[in-house]
Amino acid sequence: MDHDHSYKYLFSHPELVRDLLQGFVHEPWIGELDLATLERVNATYVTADLRERESDIIWRVRLRDRWIYVYLLIEFQSSVDRYMAVRLLTYLGLLYQDLIQGKQLHGGKLPPVLPLVLYNGEPRWSAPLSIDEMIDVIPGGLSKYRPRFQYLLLDEGHYDARNLPERNLVTAIFRLETSRATEDVLRVLENLIEWLHLPEQDSLRRAFTLWVNRVVFPMLDPEETVPQVKNLVEAKTMLAERVKRWTQEWKEEGLQAGLQEGRQAGLQEGRQAGLQEGRQAGLQEGLQEGLQRGIRAGLLEAIELGLSIKFGDEGVALLARIRQIEDVDHLRAITEAIKTAATLEEVEAAV
User: Quick check: pTM over 0.70?
Assistant: First the structure.
């Protein structure tokens, strides 16, 4: 799965693991880690019955005079795995078995492991974090034999974007995954370009570029095939150009909808006003006059909306002149001019 592979590619870089630990694991011992010693560990084990399985991402780092391990399981499921604690306990057993066979113990003791689940599904995580919560309690003393095992959960959707740590690569990932506004994605890309400008960060830049191509662009516009970009600068440039194009399309759609709504409102108001005045005066002229007045009001409303969408504040002065026009046919001509005009001067010509 492209999403899975590109995510694991990102977290194969020590900079990502460093920012994950420093920014999202709030425990005192984190400050004692020698993060310069972060080292990726081979994550393929062979069980006793020779069935090979590939686990997730494992790192080790020095804590004073010994190693501790970070077992990072990245979960992309759309639903919550209730038995995640059981899965992780199995993986942890395989890791310990591998360390024992490789004689990588400190004083004959197994090293500490931080089991960490990074989850980005839509429903909030609801599975138990501790395996002993999942084991049935039977009276008679069996409870003391229940295993004690707990994992640390990082649920992306649980975090408030305003409280995420700043200048943090994992924060950038969370924001890229959860942002639906293109402008927000552009800001994250600008940050990444600034943070990852050094020559030695080339591999990490490629990892983020792959991530943007395979995950972020399809998420922003699932209906359109976006060309692959070669670097983050190109990604930012292309996205900025698309924002301009999408904005113009939205303006045009808004103008058309506004003109149509204005016409409909004008006709309805004209009918109501004309009928009311016609009844009161008992004259056919009342109906006609009321219709004209309502149509004029609707057209003026459509013109004001169209000028605002297409020309912003520049159309305010012209709107004051248009309001002095009584002739309905003249106002219709102005609405048509707004639809096709590329400049405010073309509208002024119609006025």
Answer: no
